[in-house]
Amino acid sequence: MKSLKRYDYLIYTFIFVVISVIWSQLSNFTWDDDAITRLMNVQDARHNSLQWLSAWNRPLFVVLFYLPIQAFGKTGAMLLMVALTAISGILLYKGLRHKGVPHASVAVVFLLFQTFLFGIARDAMTEPLASFLICLGLYCFYTEKFQWFALIGGLLPLARSEGILLMPFWLYPLLQRRLYHYIPLMAAGMLAWALGWYAYSGRPLALMQELLSSGNSKNRYAHVSLTHHSGKYVYVLGPVAFFFFLWGYLGSLRKMLSDYFVLLQFTVGFLVYVIFAVYMDLGQSGGALRNLITLSPLAAVICLYGFNYWMALWPLPAADTKTAKRKSTQPVTPVKRDELWVYVVFIILLAWISFTNELVYRQNYDPNKKDYTILWFLIVCCLLAILPVFSFARKRVYVVAGMLLVWQLTFTLWYENPQSHGNEERKGINDMTAFIHNSSLKDRKIFCGHPWYFWATGRHPNDTITTGEVSVRSKPGMQPGQLVIWEGHYTGEHYTNTPLPVFLNDTTFAPVYVSQNKDKEAVAVLFVKLYPQTQYNDRFFTNLVKEFPQNDRIPYFKGIYERDRKKAAAVSIQDFNAALALNPGGADIYLARGISYLLMKDKANGCRDLNQAALMGSQQALPLLQSYCK
């Protein structure tokens, strides 16, 4: 058992690695689309030297991940990211153990299974990379390897640009110890980056302009309230880690200045993200909680402080004389157990007041929807925390501690399950991609602006032979037979500003397929650029109907083509009949057939279909009924 306990930090790390790899194989959903774009940018770095210098890409990320991504694609990025995060936990443990902090291995759990860090640590994102650097810096700080400490501090801005604002905390230990000759090492990373920009652009201040350029555009995510980050930080950490974090932070406030590298740096770093999200447009932070992942190592240490305060409440009873002697030399715990009850009540009230609304997109509360998950997890955590009050549990306080850590793991694995980031938009693009690439359409040139399409297909947006941008600018260059995937996100006002009517109202394009969300709203619409020769278009739709005989969308859109593009309403009714045979509950099919009947002056059948569509929930049918069926 002693041998097992000695290597418990490696057991925690091994569990993290195994689960992370399994999770990566169970789903292709990334935390954010940024992970896809960054991976594609690193792939493009072999042809485009600017990708090495871009502040958005983060130069250190490109340097470290270039070879794994070039050789193994997204699998290479996943494996290296998991490895770096796992090493972060080991470094954090080694540093804390060297410092003599009790129960240092517990910090590995509080780091690796912080909910957001665990969820993002398989993607091509830079927050875990910055977290790794801080862990490495903590290790060098505690072991007094200040030459490496200075160099690592200088690399932090190359992983996350806002790391520049944390550099004073890395500079102070060097000044305090009069290690002035190491200070130039802190400037090495930024100097190399600045020289790279100068060589590329010929402008001495090109790096400064690059860092500030993200603030030139409007923050499309809007600014958030001052309490946005603090009010939702429980989701970033997970309920058990949050329980100990708050205890550790409040209990250590009096040591803020003496423990400046952890407590003060965390506080200032946290406030930096708050200020960015509330008042500024730099980085378009928009209150993105994932930015706080950068501070994960500091938060994990504070969690450990809280855990040690809790452990100090339950000195183990002496089992023999030797243990009794050891116990007699222990200092009296400075924390009264009565304070535990007060803290537990405080945490439960805080959870009830602040954490009972549903969190949407891992970011904002929906005041109209309730979600008591965090509340119940915190209540269970509180019950476990007070369990050692009873004598039978006090003798097994390490078992109770283990239960708390398992409870943290349970929440993280449930909340960050493999499908947790599969929102309707991504599922819609996946559906559209599967439709295209499981058919003869895959050989055509496809215009699409959504990163998820390229992630799912393995194509690259710079491959202009097989792909193209969806925009008003690119539209005139689209050739007959080529396909367009319109979707509301990356063709919206913040990107190419190409609304759906640009293609829907253009008679040279015809809709082919649609991916819808649960409310039957279009997530993505596939269009084909029509041929001037009608027979080619007829052959296109006829072949699709044969290729997908069980898909009601194909005859439906063939009917739309016949009615709206060929003006053959009678033929369209046959297609709508075929679609209804496959999907008798299709309100949009009844609506479409009703319009065709009205175009043929068949008011009785047209109004019957429109009425049926209205009964099935079609909002478009109501005005038509009022206009044509009175």
UniProtKB/TrEMBL annotation:
<feature type="transmembrane region" description="Helical">
    <location>
        <begin position="233"/>
        <end position="253"/>
    </location>
</feature>
<feature type="transmembrane region" description="Helical">
    <location>
        <begin position="76"/>
        <end position="94"/>
    </location>
</feature>
<feature type="transmembrane region" description="Helical">
    <location>
        <begin position="373"/>
        <end position="390"/>
    </location>
</feature>
<feature type="transmembrane region" description="Helical">
    <location>
        <begin position="100"/>
        <end position="118"/>
    </location>
</feature>
<feature type="transmembrane region" description="Helical">
    <location>
        <begin position="9"/>
        <end position="29"/>
    </location>
</feature>
<feature type="transmembrane region" description="Helical">
    <location>
        <begin position="179"/>
        <end position="200"/>
    </location>
</feature>
<keyword id="KW-0812">Transmembrane</keyword>
<dbReference type="InterPro" id="IPR011990">
    <property type="entry name" value="TPR-like_helical_dom_sf"/>
</dbReference>
<feature type="transmembrane region" description="Helical">
    <location>
        <begin position="260"/>
        <end position="280"/>
    </location>
</feature>
<keyword id="KW-0472">Membrane</keyword>
<feature type="transmembrane region" description="Helical">
    <location>
        <begin position="397"/>
        <end position="415"/>
    </location>
</feature>
<keyword id="KW-1133">Transmembrane helix</keyword>
<feature type="transmembrane region" description="Helical">
    <location>
        <begin position="292"/>
        <end position="319"/>
    </location>
</feature>
<feature type="transmembrane region" description="Helical">
    <location>
        <begin position="340"/>
        <end position="361"/>
    </location>
</feature>
<feature type="transmembrane region" description="Helical">
    <location>
        <begin position="148"/>
        <end position="172"/>
    </location>
</feature>
<protein>
    <recommendedName>
        <fullName>Glycosyltransferase RgtA/B/C/D-like domain-containing protein</fullName>
    </recommendedName>
</protein>
